[in-house]
């Protein structure tokens, strides 16, 4: 998926502040800039975080709906040592956060 389309979809569904947090940027306008078709591309590390965040969000959204997916991203998670999944995405804890999301969707959530 084109990074601009991906960021636009994330902005619309989880909000620019969550996108900013996922990417690990301080500039609040970055998610809006990245969402523009002719806007700048995020740097490779930030793009990797955004793609991870999108994958996790989409996994949850397809199974549970967008409101549950957003709540999951922002809630302390026992499978992630009570860390917020959005911060695990920022730290690129790929296996851990994908595993936690899949466990939630598969209803094998007990730690």
What does this structure look like?
The chain is mainly α and 111 residues long. It has helices at residues 3-14, 16-23, 30-35, 44-64, 66-74, 85-90, 94-105. α4 (44-64) packs across α5. The radius of gyration is 13 Å and the shape is globular.
Topology overview:
Blueprint: H1 3-14, H2 16-23, H3 30-35, H4 44-64, H5 66-74, H6 85-90, H7 94-105
Helix pairs in contact: 1-2, 1-4, 4-5, 4-7
List key phrases describing it:
7 helices; 111 residues
Question: In a nutshell, what does this entry contain?
Answer:
With 111 residues, the protein is mainly alpha-helical.
Distance between the termini: 33 Å
Strand content: under 5%
Q: Count the helices. How many?
A: 7
Largest sheet: none
Give the strand tally.
0
On the 0-100 scale, what is the average pLDDT? 95
- Give the overall shape: globular
Give the count of structural domains: 1
Instruction: Please state the CA-atom Rg, rounded to the nearest Å.
Output: 13 Å
């Amino acid at each position: 998926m084109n990074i601009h389309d991906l960021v636009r979809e994330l902005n619309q569904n989880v909000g620019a502040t969550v996108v900013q947090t996922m990417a690990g940027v301080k500039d609040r306008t970055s998610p809006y800039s990245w969402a523009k078709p002719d806007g700048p591309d995020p740097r490779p590390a930030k793009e990797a975080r955004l793609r991870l965040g999108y994958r996790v969000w989409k996994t949850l959204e397809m199974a549970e709906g967008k409101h549950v997916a957003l709540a999951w991203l922002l809630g302390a998670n026992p499978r992630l040592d009570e860390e917020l999944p959005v911060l695990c995405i920022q730290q690129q804890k790929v296996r851990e956060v994908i595993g936690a999301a899949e466990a939630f969707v598969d209803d094998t959530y007990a730690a």
